[in-house]
Amino acid sequence: MPTNSSRLRRAAAVLAANMVTASPAAASGTYSGRAYAMGGSVRRSLSRVLSVLILAGSAILVPAHSAAATDFCVEPLCGDVDNRSGGHQIMVAGCWPNNESYIYKDALGCDRTVEVPNGRDGDEWYWDIDGFRAYKGCVTSWKKNGVTQTPVNRKGASVSVWIKISNDVNVVITGITCG
């Protein structure tokens, strides 16, 4: 199966080839129906430049790890959740099913959720994290963009709560106390 970079190189080559033609009329500087003709070295240079520009643009938009295939954002507008809870896993979501800021249930209802172990970051699984789960029966302490937030107290609750995060927000789970 072709990779994204091979598709982009092929597209750049086709684009460059369609911009010029080697017809005798075009070589004389008259319009050939596509564009004015250029010499072979100019055409190759143009093809290289277009390839580099397309590949550079794709490197910005498509990250190099597997999460790229599942969701999309452009840095620095990607949400992230880092787990520094001191031993607990945290469930994060690479999707969000509606416009609500809080969803009170154990299962979010979208197909891209994963447990992130302590000491790991959610963007290792999904490029853009859209929310995290504060577990029922626990108190979850967290920071949003470096600012300590009110802990989410789910002690005695019958369901967990999912908390939506914005595109440019970095959340650090600083502690989870259960029981």
- Tell me the number of strands: 10
Largest sheet: 5 strands, mixed
List the quaternary state of the chains: single chain
Terminal-residue CA separation: 50 Å
Q: Give the overall average pLDDT.
A: 73
Determine Rg (CA atoms, Å): 25 Å
Indicate the proportion of strand residues.
15-25%
SSE succession: HHHEEEEEEEEEE
Shape: globular
**Helical content, roughly?**
10-25%
Q: What's the short version?
A:
The chain is an alpha+beta fold and 179 residues long. It folds into two domains: 4-62; 80-178, no CATH class.
What would your notes on this structure say?
- This protein has helices spanning 4-19, 24-27, 40-61; strands spanning 80-83, 90-93, 102-103, 113-116, 131-134, 138-144, 147-148, 152-153, 161-164, 170-178.
- It has three helices and ten strands.
- 23% of the residues lie in helices and 23% in strands.
- The protein folds into two domains: 4-62; 80-178, no CATH class.
- Strands 1, 6, 7, 8 and 10 form a five-stranded mixed β-sheet that branches. The chain has a five-stranded antiparallel β-sheet with strand order 3-9-5-2-4, with no helix packed on it.
- With 179 residues, it is of the alpha+beta class.
- The radius of gyration is 25 Å and the shape is globular.
